[in-house]
Design goal:
55% of the residues lie in helices and 14% in strands. It has 13 helices and nine strands. α8 (163-191) crosses α11 (231-248). It binds NADP nicotinamide-adenine-dinucleotide phosphate. NADP nicotinamide-adenine-dinucleotide phosphate (NAP) binds at residues 7-12, 30-32, 35, 64-66, 70, 73-74, 92-93, 118-119, 121-122, 229-230, 233, 237.
């Protein structure tokens, strides 16, 4: 089975390396070609110059790009050349609606589509321990599973097309709340003059312990916000969550607050920083 990876950002690079390690990676494509060339050289695989060229050469097309319009433009390109029986797996975080559009475009070409967003951060992508939530046909998932297993610690089929992205929206709403809680609590701890390494160590071992505190806590209290997960990307995700909530007549108080905070930070030029940059507003409101 031959797989190709489209999108070599913070997530896609680690994913591609793990698929290569498992022996499935035929090649890579990235919009900024230099990134594809250097990774292809490192992994001894093909650097495709167009998504169409990649799609016609592999059985499993993996995608991890930024936003809805990016996914749809990639799908439109690969739909021209994708082989019947191929499985296209989108691991970007986008809306369920985008997943349904992508599945419809590919089904005309007898290719399957899985929405398969992931959680676990750049560390999870690097270490092959991502949690993957999948929407689409079970048979398509089973076909792609050996390749997906190279990138993940856990894969769960959530339901039909769009169910993976709906589950990821749940994750992103939760991540907004956790970000608010951790950045605020640590700024409070700093104001108390506590030893931050000890605060993080002891709280990580108790009921309030969590991934974000363990992985981002120390850096944020030192004013380091290297991505990680770009704040502008989480903002994009939360806008999707807000639209889904509105459709369901549901209110998302913490998400609404986080969107406003992120908009302030983006306006101040911090959109490319990690989401823990929310700490800036807690320290200096
Ligand atoms: P990133 O570092 O900003 O990388 C984005 C990638 O998408 C780059 O390779 C970029 O190409 C490519 N791209 C963007 N627009 C494109 C277009 N129109 N056509 C072709 N390629 C395009 O982002 P990331 O952190 O890897 O995140 C990727 C996706 O995973 C996002 O949907 C994000 O929400 C999701 N995600 C991220 C994390 C995280 O912790 N970072 C965790 C889970 C899920 P260039 O190199 O040319 O710019």
């Amino acid at each position: 089975m031959r797989a190709g990876m489209i999108g070599l950002g913070a997530m896609g690079t680690g994913m591609a390396k793990n698929v290569a390690k498992a022996g499935y990676l035929a090649g890579v494509y990235n919009r900024t070609a230099a990134k594809a060339q250097s990774l292809a050289e490192e992994l001894q695989v093909t650097a495709y110059n167009q998504p169409e060229a990649l799609a016609e050469d592999v059985d499993i097309v993996l995608i991890c790009v930024s936003a809805d319009s990016d996914v749809l433009s990639i799908i439109e390109s690969i739909a021209k050349t994708v082989k019947p029986g191929s499985v296209v797996v989108d691991m970007s975080t986008v809306s369920s609606e985008t997943s349904k559009k992508a599945a419809a475009l590919l089904s005309v070409k007898q290719a399957d589509f899985l929405d398969a967003p992931v959680s676990g951060g750049v560390e999870g992508a690097k270490n092959g321990t991502l949690a993957m939530m999948v929407g689409g046909e079970v048979q398509a998932l089973e076909k792609a599973r050996p390749v997906l297993a190279a990138m993940t610690g856990r894969i769960l089929h959530m339901g039909p097309t769009g169910a993976g992205q709906a589950t990821k929206a749940v994750n992103q709403i939760m991540a907004a709340g956790i970000n608010q809680a951790v950045t605020e609590a640590l700024a409070f701890a700093q104001a108390q003059g506590l030893a931050m390494d000890k605060v993080i160590e002891i709280i990580s071992g108790g009921a309030a312990g969590n991934w974000f505190l363990e992985h981002r806590g120390s850096a944020m209290t030192q004013g380091i916000f290297a991505p990680g997960f770009k704040l502008a990307l989480h903002h994009k995700d939360l806008k999707i969550c807000q639209a889904m909530a509105e459709q369901a007549g549901f209110s998302l108080t913490l998400t609404d607050m986080t969107v406003l905070d992120y908009e302030r930070l983006i306006a101040e030029g911090y959109g490319d920083e990690d989401i823990s940059a929310l700490h800036r507003l807690k320290i200096k409101p």
